[in-house]
Structure formats: structure tokens, C-alpha cells
Amino acid sequence: MKLNEATAIVAERKKFMQVMDEERERSQWKENELLAKLREMQSRLAESEALAEKYQSQYEDEKLHVESLRHDVSSLNSLLTQAQATINAKHGAPREMPRHEDQEETKRLKEDQARIERELTEQREYEKKKQTQKEEQEHELAEQHREFEEKLACLRRERIEEEERMEELRKRRQVEEEAKLQEDLARQRAAVHEAAELQQKLVEQRLTDEKQRLQEEQAYTERILAEEQKFNEEIEAKRQQQLEDELAVREIQERVAEEERVRQEHKAQEEQERIRLEQQQAVAHQTALRKQEEDRQRDEELRLAEEERKRKEADQANTETVEEEASWQESSVEDDDADSNHSEEKSGSVVDEITVEIRPVGNAEEHTTNDVHSDNEEAAQESVASASSHGSAQGDIASDIPTTTQDPPAKTPEEEEQERQKAAEEAKKKEDENVIDVYRQRVLARKAAEKQRQLELEAESERKAKEEEERQRAQLVEDASESDQELELSGGSFAESSAASNSDSF
């Protein structure tokens, strides 16, 4: 009991000391605040003193300036005296000086005198103004110094009053604390007496409570054991369910991955089949265009051979007619023969030119189809060779045809030139069509490659998404297993703590 009483007294003392510390901190804070104000006033005083020194230096500068002005005034006075003496001397001089020069000199001297008087007046006004300003500044500095002294004295008085008030408050609180301690001691003595009376009752009550506690401990132990067994059974059931869920999730993931793989393979096969069909269509289209070109060239060569044959027959018929008419026209017949030979040579040159124009077309076709595929190049070369052999065969046939039939007259050079231009335009048009077809095939191949690359990127992104989903599922399964392990550990620790508490109670 004495120990409890002493502890209570120590606690009260600690509380009182804490209150005193708080009061001391509060007074220290106020003192710091007053010191801050004092420092601020000192800084203001220093600024005022610096300003006063500045004004004093300005006053000294103005004083020096006034001295210099006074010196200037004295020099001006001396100059004025000299001027007056000069005027008097000139007035006293003989009358030989002209009158107008005398008037000008007098006027100039008067102007100088007026200027000097005006400058002296301005200087006096400036000095008077400076003196007034200086007096005002000194009065203002004195007023500021007086206000600062009053504020400083007021702060000192406030600080002294605050210290006195804090001392009175401390003494009053000390008296109150002592009275409170006496009351607490009396109250503690009464409490000790009551505690002695209650101690016996507490012993008896403790024995009764101990018996009841033992009974409750036994019942609690039995209940804890039953709950622990039930908890272990639930944990085992959850573990089995978790294993089944993991197996099901793994099977689902494997099945989804297999379906995705099959779908990707099927999709890739479809895309490859589509690309192959497009390429076959492009090759077939190119082959058809090449076949059309070969047919057109073959028709053109047949037409040219037929025209050549008709022209030769016509020339031969004309020659025979001329020979039968008269012998006296031998010279004209020879001229006709020369003309016919010339036309034959010209027509032969036309055929050669057309053949030469056809061959570049075939070469251009070979060049364009070589960019698409090497098989197209071989086919183009074979078509050109077949066209050339066919043209030579047609030429042989045309040369073997007899020229006994009557044909229309030979074409003029203008018509032949038009036919050549038309054939060249058709060949150029066909070449442009071949180039366009090759470009179209390249564009289709590029689009197919881009689509294939896009499909590969989509498949890669889907694969990454699947991997991320599988990783998240594995993370969820791992988190669930960790939570179950934590539950098991918490259940085991709970059972151990229960067993330990039961053993302690026994």
C-alpha cells in the first residue's frame, strides 16, 4: 500500500513538473517572441541610423556645394566690382568714344549685373530650401528615435510584467498543487483502509472464482479441441477442392492452347492457300495476256504477208499487161519494172521494220515478266521464238504463192507510214498493258506479304495474351495456395496457443 501511495505521489509530482515545464516553455516562447520584436526594432533603428548617416552625408555634400556657390558669388561680386570700376572709368574717359558703343557697353554691363543678381537670388532660395529640408529630416529622425525608445521601453515593461505574472502564477499553482497533494494523501489513506477491508472479501471471492474458472477452462478446452478438429477437416476439404480446381484449370488451359494452336494452323493454311490461288490467278492472267499478244502479232504478220502477196501479184499483173500492149513501150516497161522492184524493196523494208518493232515488244514483255517469275520469262521467249518462226513460215508461204491473180494497186508511202505508226502505237499500248499487269502482280504480291506479316503479328499478340492470361491464372492459383497455407498455419498456431493456455491454467 505504501508503494502504491508513493507511486501516486510520484505520478502527481511528474504531472506537476509537466505542467511547470509547459508553463516554462510558454514563457520561453513569449520571451523569444519579445526578443524577435526587439531584434526587429534594433534592425529598424540601424536602418534609421543608416538613413540619418545618409542624410548627414547629403547635408555635407550640400554644404560643400553651398561653399562652392558662395565662392562663385564672391568671384561674381569681384567681377561686378571690376565691371562697375570699368564703367566708371569709361564714363570718366574722354568723349572720343562713339555714343552707340558706350550705350552697348552699358547695356551689356546691366544685363550682367541683372544675371548675377538673379543667380544670387536663386542661390539664396536654394540654400533656404536645403536648410528647411535638413531641419525636417532632423526632426523626423528625432521623432523616429523617440518612438523607438518608447516602443523599447514598452517592451521592457511588458516583459517585466509578464515575468512577474508568471512568477505569481507559478507560486499560486505550487500552493494549489501542495493542497491537492494533501487531499490526495488523505484520500489514499481512506482507500488503503477500504482496501484492507475488501481484501478478505477478495480472497474468498478469488477461491470461488478459481473453482468456476477451472470448470470453464475444462469446458473451453473441450470446445477448442472440437473446433480444431472441425477446422482441420475443413482445411483438408479445401485442399482437396483446390487440387481438383488446379487440375481442372490445367486441363482447360491445355485444351484452350490446343484449340488455339489448331486454329492458328488452320488459319495459316487457309491464308497460304489463298495466296497460292491469287498467284495462280495472276500467272493465268499473265499467260492469257501473253497468248492474246502472240495471237495479235500472228494476225498482224499474216495480214502483212497477205498484203505483200497481193501487192506482188498486182505488180506482176501490171508487168504482164504492159509487156502485151506494145513493144515500143519497152523503155516505159523497164521503168515500170524498176518502179515495181523499188516498191518490192520498199515493202520488204516495211516488213523488216514491223518485225523489228515486234521484237522489242517481245523483249519488253520478256523483261517485265522476268520481274514476276522466271517461268513467265521462259514462256515469253518461247512465244517470241514461235512468233518469229511463224512469221518466217508465213513469209515463205507468201513467197511460194503464185502471182497470177489480179490484186489492187500497191499502197502509197503515206498509207504504209500510217500502218507502221498504227502498228507501233498498238505495240506501245500492249507494252504499257504488260507493264501495268506486272505492276499489278507486284502490288498483289506485296499485299499478300503484308497480310501474311499482319497475320503473324496478330498470332504473336494472341499468343502473348494467352501467355499473360495463363500467367495470371497461375498467379491466382499460387495466391490461393498461399492463403490456404496461411490458414493452415494460423489454425495450427491457434491450436498450439489454446493447448498452451490450457496447460498454464492446469
Summarize the structure in words.
- The chain has helices at 2-92, 99-325, 330-372, 374-400, 413-505.
- It folds into 2 domains: 2-91 and 100-200; 260-480, no CATH class.
- It is built from 5 helices and no strands.
- It is mostly helical and 506 residues long.
- Residues 31-72 form a coiled coil.
- Residues 321-338 have a biased composition (Acidic residues).
Keywords for this structure?
single chain; 506 residues; 2 domains; flat
- Tally of contiguous helical segments: 5
Amino-to-carboxy terminus distance: 31 Å
Biggest beta sheet summary: none
The arrangement of helices and strands along the chain is HHHHH
Shape: flat
How large is the share of residues in beta strands? under 5%
* Number of structural domains: 2
Mean pLDDT: 72
Gyration radius from CA atoms, angstroms: 67 Å
Helix content: over 70%
Class by alpha and beta content: mainly alpha
Q: What is the number of strand segments?
A: 0
Query: Which regions are unreliable across 5 or more consecutive residues at pLDDT < 50?
Result: 93-97, 342-408
Biased composition (Basic and acidic residues): 93-148, 256-277, 290-315, 364-376, 419-433, 448-473
Region (Disordered): 86-148, 256-436, 448-506
Coiled coil: 31-72
Biased composition (Low complexity): 488-506
